[in-house]
Amino acid sequence: MGKQPVKLKAVVYALSPFQQKIMTGLWKDLPEKIHHKVSENWISTILLLAPVIGTYSYAQHFQEQEKLEHRF
Questions:
Q1: Per the domain annotation, does 30 fall within a domain?
Q2: Which family does it belong to (predicted)?
Q3: Angle at which helices 42-69 and 30-40 cross, to 10°
Q4: What's the rounded Cα separation, in Å, for the pair 17 and 14?
Q5: What is this structure's pTM?
Q6: 5 found inside a domain
Q7: Could you list the residue range(s) of the whole structural domain that residue 50 is in?
């Protein structure tokens, strides 16, 4: 039960610097794709963004009140 060396082959993928059309599919109709995603999932978007925006605005308001408290 000796150890036998195993030959591994490495596969390297690279993009050609001369081929510029690799990622055009990502940017094609981008505003339409964003509108479609938001209109399909608007309730999830609101439920995600409302707590984040609320927490951020509360923290900003608290920080401003704390700064103003030491003014007088």
A1: yes
A2: Belongs to the UQCRQ/QCR8 family.
A3: 90
A4: 9
A5: 0.46
A6: no
A7: 17-70
